[in-house]
Amino acid sequence: MKRLYNSPDTVVSEALEGIALTHPELLRVAHDPTYLARVDAPVAGRVAVVSGGGSGHEPMHVGFVGPGMLSAACPGELFTSPTADQVEAAVRAVDAGAGTVLVVKNYSGDVMNFEMAAELLAADGVATETVLVADDVAVEDSTYTSGRRGVGATVLVEKVCGAAAERGDSLAQVAELGRRVCARSRSLGFALSAGTVPATGRRSFELPDDEIEFGVGIHGEPGRERRPMQPVDALVDRAMAAICADFGADELAGDVLLFVTGLGSATPLECSIVARRAVQDLDRRGLRVARNLVGSYMTSLDMLGVSLTVLVLDEQLAELWDAPVRTAALRWGR
Amino acid sequence: MKRLYNSPDTVVSEALEGIALTHPELLRVAHDPTYLARVDAPVAGRVAVVSGGGSGHEPMHVGFVGPGMLSAACPGELFTSPTADQVEAAVRAVDAGAGTVLVVKNYSGDVMNFEMAAELLAADGVATETVLVADDVAVEDSTYTSGRRGVGATVLVEKVCGAAAERGDSLAQVAELGRRVCARSRSLGFALSAGTVPATGRRSFELPDDEIEFGVGIHGEPGRERRPMQPVDALVDRAMAAICADFGADELAGDVLLFVTGLGSATPLECSIVARRAVQDLDRRGLRVARNLVGSYMTSLDMLGVSLTVLVLDEQLAELWDAPVRTAALRWGR
Amino acid sequence: MADRLSATDLTAVFADFQRAVERDRDLLTELDTAVGDGDHGTNLDRGMRAAVEALAAIPQDTPGGVFNLVGRRLVSTVGGASGALYGTAFLRAARAAGAAEALDAATCTAVLRDATTGIAERGKCATGDKTMYDVWMAASTAAAAAAGDGLPALLAAASTAAGAAEQEMVPWQARRGRASYLGERSKDHRDPGAVSSRLLFGCFAAWADA
Amino acid sequence: MADRLSATDLTAVFADFQRAVERDRDLLTELDTAVGDGDHGTNLDRGMRAAVEALAAIPQDTPGGVFNLVGRRLVSTVGGASGALYGTAFLRAARAAGAAEALDAATCTAVLRDATTGIAERGKCATGDKTMYDVWMAASTAAAAAAGDGLPALLAAASTAAGAAEQEMVPWQARRGRASYLGERSKDHRDPGAVSSRLLFGCFAAWADA
Ligand SMILES: Nc1ncnc2c1ncn2[C@@H]1O[C@H](COP(=O)(O)OP(=O)(O)O)[C@@H](O)[C@H]1O
Ligand SMILES: Nc1ncnc2c1ncn2[C@@H]1O[C@H](COP(=O)(O)OP(=O)(O)O)[C@@H](O)[C@H]1O
Ligand SMILES: [Mg+2]
Ligand SMILES: [Mg+2]
Ligand SMILES: [Mg+2]
Ligand SMILES: [Mg+2]
């Protein structure tokens, strides 16, 4: 399969070079270990917010580094969580003495590497708080799994924590707000085809023409269920039903934020068609879609699919969502 | 081929519904004839800027409606230019008496339909000025063609005209600035695979595994030349060489704006890799990439490819580029 | 003998054209996929459906009225190059037909000439550019030459010339429209607009022949 | 007889493991594609290359030094679950090996036990979860039982138990790591980390056997 690469081995490093070359006013890239950091970090008196994960999900996380969102991001190899070294170096580069919130998606590899980094940093007196994102209702949260995966809510947590840090909240407050977003978010994704892995040139799983993966992961891993292909409205209905059913009886009320992200090859037309149905669905449930974000913000290489996230807002979360942000991929208010 | 649609016939209308539902504070959608307009239009004392074209290129143009950019956009059927009716109705809805600039990509259908609309409007005393975008160096500009196609520069023209209109420039001034962007821009695109046409479920052209379309169009039409596949750097070098060679001897100097747009399925990783090489290339030519825009802003359904645009800046164009803009797809400064 | 074309006749011809376009929609789209953007069949099909619906809803008394309504519906519903071109052609035809109750050979010649000129002006095209204009020009010229032989002969001559022109231009290189972007690669392809135009003239000839 | 494992010996074992991973990289990646994200082969290959390079650049005097360097390089270069798990295992092994010049059967048993515990702690996993931990636990238990029979027998027993465990768990359902997301669908697949761990114990046994 043809792609716009020079070599599978240089995909990540060349892309990071490109990001650095096109955003010199915003961020800088460090190598060995690799991380991207705000040019103006550490910001005196402010809590730092650091995230990271495997590459292949762009613009998450590298596109979210900047004032009002992440202080630094640690991009691992493709679909491979960053090393503990990367996380440690990134935190050391941006921590201003007020501590650092680590936004970690709940995948074994991410959890373990961030944990190792946190241990090393703690031993050296650098305070960190971890916000573990585990919003994917496709995965049963039981002792029989590693727990729910972190997906779309990650972007929301990063925005809210970044805004809280920017206004001067304490380490404990920023972490609490991040955990509040986690507690009030649920997500689900589905895919019509998997992404193409650069190293092999093949799709990470193959689907027949009349089937889809429901509850798909964003790391090329298959979903929990293979289902017949249906018109997109029916797929959105099914996803929304699963998301809404997962909230506690009285948790789902009032204003919500709807986040629709294309997973790679979904066109803006397709994302809008999905958003249309999702808004209508929430409307019918008596909820008000007070905020929304629609586009390809968390991807899985060139996977054809979407992921839907519902976050139940409160006043504070809405305010932090609206706060100015300036990153490569998300920007408003400045 | 599976896609996230309900039916090929409703792709455009449902997507527009989705856009309207998710951006009520920004724009409204009119039907029969169809157009999207700024909620606050007509804006008293300001020139209006209207564009349009076939659908399938999102976020262009519908994602660029809002303060600082387009007053209205007329989305045609997929890859089909809008009707004269649509253009006429859109202009009537947003014209504030100060006249309207029509940003038209140089395709026979677009040119003729906008021209018919302009004739009808003129007969009714509504003043329009047309800015014809024809920046695609893949097409020879001779009596043997309909002239160069309008591609990436369209986005830049819309931004600059929108900013000029916002600050209160006259109809003639806004049009002059748009034409200045046209005169100082050159573009070229290439594709590794064509987009999938909803009606047929097939790619609009098929490429063998070791070939690409060089100088490809954005309407599913093949390019001018079929070439062997190469690593992306070699393709970018070839595109940049063609773009730069097309400028007059002393036209290409000083500060430039580089615009890299994915054509649909190019991942952010791939766009960044392309941008990296293009920046390096311009650097080697002694030019300064003073501004850049990298992402999928003008697409061709799910085509896998990119289009590169170079605009030679002057102080005024840079200032208008930097001016605040608030649209669904492009936003800064507010 | 069908020596005069009434509003009812013209309405029937357009209904026939609509069916022809619907039948050959995929062919037209396929031809446009090879040299353009693959929408000519769906474009014209959408437009002619709307036109025929409008004619049923608002029956017209004069051929000029029919041309006008069809032209306006095409302009409103098609978009693309063909929407503007067919729309302009029929609107010009309406003007040339004026308020006449029916069209004889002489009026028909004038109608066709003005419609053809409308295409040239709208498309900024000339003969040899390998567009639908070549077909209209051939039909118009043949019609003018046959004007003295009565309406059926005129329409038969126009249709024959249209068919011949559409064939003749296949090896040419396109110089207008999307196909022109292909340069040399546009050679040896049939032009979609020329094919649909040929279908139109075929419908007129079939009416005269019936 | 290879009754004690020196720094040189251990360096050779890791070099052998690096070659084994390189050879079976595509197999490991393929297994991980079926139940995970398809990177286990490339991950471990990248890490072991870096580890072997480091051992060549900074030769170590003690087995503890070798374990430490390998563990640190894995932590720095692999990422993912396996980077943290193998890294933690070898760093714990280094601590257990201490400053000893060479490892005898008793120390080896302790080294293996501590490394295995490290995996459990880092991975928050238990036996039966169908991860590499099951293989390490089986190897560690077998090694402890064979500790009285000398180092070669110990390593042979560990390798045999590792192989048996890797086979035995194939029908199980995964409860940790990415494979756990598949639920029932993770059954009847080989666990990539279990397979690479089995390769590692095979390399130790091959050294003892040579
Ligand atoms: N400038 C032009 N002058 C005359 N005819 C043209 C011109 N441009 C296009 N055409 C005709 O229009 C046809 C294409 O129509 P269609 O596919 O519906 O529109 P579009 O090219 O906008 O997709 C071509 O086959 C050609 O005959
Ligand atoms: N929580 C865990 N506890 C123990 N082993 C685990 C755990 N998670 C993953 N593993 C092991 O790691 C292997 C996968 O490694 P690798 O593919 O390199 O990392 P990743 O899963 O991050 O892509 C699995 O086959 C499994 O043996
Ligand atoms: Mg991985
Ligand atoms: Mg078209
Ligand atoms: Mg066409
Ligand atoms: Mg893996």
Automatic annotation (TrEMBL), chains A, B:
It holds the Pfam family Dak1. InterPro entries: DhaK_1 (IPR012736), DhaK_dom (IPR004006), Dihydroxyacetone_Kinase (IPR050861). GO terms for biological process: glycerol catabolic process. Residues 7-332 form the DhaK domain. Signal peptide: none annotated. It comes from the Bacteria. PROSITE patterns: DHAK. GO terms for molecular function: glycerone kinase activity. Keywords: Kinase, Transferase. GO terms for cellular component: cytosol. The keyword Transferase applies. This is Dihydroxyacetone kinase subunit DhaK. The gene is dhaK.
From TrEMBL, chains C, D:
InterPro entries: DhaK_L_YcgS, DhaL_dom, DhaL_dom_sf, Dihydroxyacetone_Kinase. GO terms for molecular function: glycerone kinase activity. Keywords: Kinase, Transferase. One of its GO terms (cellular component) is cytosol. One of its GO terms (biological process) is glycerol catabolic process. Pfam families: Dak2. Residues 8-206 form the DhaL domain. Coiled coil: none annotated. SUPFAM superfamilies: DhaL-like. It comes from the Bacteria. PANTHER family: TRIOKINASE/FMN CYCLASE (PTHR28629), TRIOKINASE_FMN CYCLASE (PTHR28629:SF4). NCBIfam families: dha_L_ycgS. This is Dihydroxyacetone kinase subunit L. It comes from Actinocatenispora thailandica.
